[in-house]
């Protein structure tokens, strides 16, 4: 190619570039500088040196290709210039699309040692899309290019050596990608030229706040991820997915609570039964998990979370592809001390400010579209102004859980005429405002762990209420509340704590309330006249916690079992400090129990008593975890070996009389995933076995925990 007269000193630069490019292991060289400094002339001279080398038979290069890229790197035009050099032009070539052209170029160049010279690059050129094999030590090919931007020719190795803090910041930034290769590639390319610590810290802050603004995110990452979203089969599933992005990064979402939000937002039909709505909700979660848009937790299958980059994609879509960022305000775990300043409150549909340090919620925003407000876990929150509540009439979901400094709610909560979901758990509110009792659309109310709550009198006015949770609060179920709850015609779920045997008896003989019970906590039942606790069959019961109770026996009422077959949905049982119990034979009627904990119960002799067992059913077929602690008189779990097809762990501590476990050589189908955990060496040495086969099967799976191992209790 013709070249301009040599500029003084340019010969040195030509030799420097040539020497570097010809080094073994160097495949790509970039030359950057402002317009007019001679980059094209320099590349022309490199072209001529390669041409001379090829013509003379040296260097082994078979073809030298020159392409002027300019400001817009059009793949089709670049392919055309390469095709001319390779002799691929013709009528048939003109009819091919970009992918077909790329394949043909690749098939030719993969067999030839080539040099590709790209002049005037302004942004990244995707060699794979063009069809050019990437140069490597193996194929010996070379690429050289010129650009006005140092960003285009950033080299990661040089960047990492630019400052001692950059490798640490790079690891932190890579962590934000959570292993997603697409994100790692794009963000890595963007940061390859950033040589200052300030640039790296700014990048981390961008990814932590609104990642869509990060270079390459909106153009290259989010549109590709959006394909998975676009392939979701219904708008209902898409809405449920976008809603799941309201939580902080790495937040574990309880599946059922997520479904409750969806119900109250109207994504699921509130007129159908709760059982059908839950079934549909779990189906949607399954769809999202299979599409890799939600991740199911490995340890706790009842929780899901969202990949950080997928979450950014969801927020981008929810904000109309970044055009309306105030539609979805998500500043969860953002270090806020006050409500953020919003330019256009009228555009806000959902807002998540959870896990901050906001002290006051005030102002008079015009916020007529807001339907969800997450304010949970703002430990400093002490005041919510009446005027603010008046401005959000369409609010359907309000979560205030975990605000431990919040002691009152304004009476103007009655202005939330559309409210369906309210969570006040873990707050210090002493009484419910009368205005709350005017919420005619409220269907879900959580009042758990409210240690100062004295009364919920008047709750029967909440005529639409379907789910009530009142667990481990100062206020527990009493006689008057039982009467009020029976007036709630639409109640479907009741999770409740009880501290009186008389109240237990009254509740268990209220058939409509019994059908609603899912979680029951019994504490400190001490009445002498009620030493036997008789449970009727309960289809809905899922979890039972019994602590510090003085009953002698728990039994299932047989007259109800023919209709319900006991407790078919009971999965978790925790019993502690119940010093009158001698056995738990009633668990024979809980065929699907997965977790059993029995602690600090000094008279317990057996889990299932052979003398009292009347059912022929084999117990614990679904049991995954068994924990026994400080049971001084416990002699056996069951009198014969059990199959335990699902069992994963047995924890045994301070059970000196328990010498034999209900195991044989066929027990526990996946023994390689099984563990028996203990902390007393003398107990381990005294364990008895039916035969040597059983002993050798399970002996490798005993795991010792020393004195530092602590027992934790259910709250």
Automatic annotation (TrEMBL):
Keyword Zinc belongs to the record: no
GO biological process terms, semicolon-separated: defense response
Keyword vocabulary terms for this entry: ATP-binding, Leucine-rich repeat, Nucleotide-binding, Plant defense, Repeat
Gene3D superfamilies xref list: Helical domain of apoptotic protease-activating factors, P-loop containing nucleotide triphosphate hydrolases, Ribonuclease Inhibitor, Winged helix-like DNA-binding domain superfamily/Winged helix DNA-binding domain
InterPro entries (alphabetical): Apaf_helical, LRR_dom_sf, LRR_R13L4/SHOC2-like, NB-ARC, P-loop_NTPase, Plant_NBS-LRR, WH-like_DNA-bd_sf, WHD_DRP
Residue ranges of every copy of the Disease resistance protein winged helix domain listed in the record: 246-314
Domain of life: Eukaryota
MF term (GO), any: ATP binding
NB-ARC domain ranges (all copies): 10-158
Recorded coiled-coil stretches: none
Residues of the Disease resistance R13L4/SHOC-2-like LRR domain: 352-650
Family: Belongs to the disease resistance NB-LRR family.
Protein name as annotated: NB-ARC domain-containing protein
């Amino acid at each position: 190619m013709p070249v301009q007269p040599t500029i003084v000193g340019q010969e040195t630069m030509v030799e420097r570039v040539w020497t570097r490019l010809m080094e073994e292991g160097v495949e790509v060289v970039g030359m950057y500088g402002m317009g007019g400094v001679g980059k094209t002339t320099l590349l022309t001279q490199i072209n001529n040196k390669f041409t001379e080398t090829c013509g003379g038979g040296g260097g082994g290069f078979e073809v030298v290709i020159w392409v002027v890229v300019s400001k817009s790197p059009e793949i089709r035009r670049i392919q055309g210039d390469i095709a001319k050099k390779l002799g691929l032009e013709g009528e048939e070539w003109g009819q091919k699309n970009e992918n077909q052209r790329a394949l043909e170029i690749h098939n030719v160049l993969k067999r030839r040692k080539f040099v590709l010279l790209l002049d005037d690059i302004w942004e990244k050129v995707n060699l794979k899309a063009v069809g050019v094999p990437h140069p490597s030590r193996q194929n010996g090919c070379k690429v050289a290019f010129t650009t006005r931007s140092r960003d285009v020719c950033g080299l990661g190795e040089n960047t990492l050596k630019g400052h001692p803090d950059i490798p640490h910041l790079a690891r932190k930034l890579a962590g934000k990608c959570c292993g997603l290769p697409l994100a790692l590639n794009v963000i890595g390319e963007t940061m390859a030229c950033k040589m200052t610590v300030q640039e790296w810290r700014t990048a981390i802050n961008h990814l932590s706040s609104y990642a869509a603004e990060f270079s390459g995110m909106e153009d290259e990452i989010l549109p590709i991820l959006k394909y998975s979203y676009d392939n979701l089969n219904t708008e209902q599933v898409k809405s449920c997915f976008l809603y799941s992005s309201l939580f902080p990064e790495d937040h574990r979402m309880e599946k059922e609570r997520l479904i409750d939000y969806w119900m109250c937002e109207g994504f699921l039909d509130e007129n159908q039964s709760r059982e059908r709505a839950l079934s549909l909700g779990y189906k949607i979660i399954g769809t999202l998990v299979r599409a890799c848009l939600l991740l199911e937790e490995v340890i706790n299958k009842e929780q899901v979370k969202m990949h950080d980059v997928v979450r950014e994609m969801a927020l981008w879509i929810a904000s109309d592809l970044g055009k309306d960022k105030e539609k979805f305000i998500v500043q969860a775990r953002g270090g806020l001390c006050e409500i953020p300043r919003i330019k256009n409150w009228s555009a806000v549909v959902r807002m998540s400010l959870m896990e901050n340090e906001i002290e006051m919620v005030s102002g008079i925003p015009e916020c007529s579209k807001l339907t969800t407000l997450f304010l949970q876990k703002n430990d400093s929150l002490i005041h919510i102004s009446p005027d603010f509540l008046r401005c959000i009439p369409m609010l359907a979901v309000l979560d205030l859980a975990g605000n431990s400094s919040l002691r009152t709610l304004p009476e103007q909560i009655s202005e939330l005429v559309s409210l369906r979901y309210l969570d006040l758990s873990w707050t210090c509110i002493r009484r419910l405002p009368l205005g709350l009792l005017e919420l005619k659309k409220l269907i879900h109310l959580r009042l758990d762990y409210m240690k100062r709550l004295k009364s919920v009198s008047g709750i029967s006015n909440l005529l639409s209420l379907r789910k009530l949770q009142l667990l481990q609060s100062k206020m527990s179920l009493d006689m008057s509340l039982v009467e009020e709850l029976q007036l709630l015609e639409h109640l479907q779920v009741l999770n409740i704590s009880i501290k009186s045997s008389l109240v237990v008896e009254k509740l268990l003989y209220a058939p409509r309330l019994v059908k609603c019970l899912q979680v029951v906590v019994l504490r400190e039942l001490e009445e002498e006249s009620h030493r036997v606790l008789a449970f009727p069959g309960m289809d809905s019961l899922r979890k039972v916690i019994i602590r510090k109770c003085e009953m002698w026996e728990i039994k299932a009422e047989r007259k109800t079992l023919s209709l319900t077959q006991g407790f078919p949905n009971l999965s978790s049982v925790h019993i502690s400090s119940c010093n009158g119990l001698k056995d738990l034979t009633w668990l024979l009627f809980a065929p699907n129990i997965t977790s059993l904990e029995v602690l600090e119960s000094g008279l317990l002799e057996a889990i299932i008593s052979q003398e009292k067992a009347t059912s022929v059913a084999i117990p614990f077929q679904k049991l995954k975890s068994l924990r026994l602690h400080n049971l001084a008189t416990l002699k056996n779990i069951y009198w014969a070996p059990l199959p335990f097809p699902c069992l994963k762990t047995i924890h045994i501590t301070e059970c000196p009389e328990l010498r034999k476990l209900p195991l044989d050589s066929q027990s526990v189908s996946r023994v390689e995933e099984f563990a028996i955990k203990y902390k007393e060496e003398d107990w381990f040495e005294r364990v008895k076995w039916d035969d040597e086969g059983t002993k050798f099967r399970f002996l490798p799976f005993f795991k010792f925990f020393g004195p530092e191992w602590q027992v934790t209790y259910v709250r």
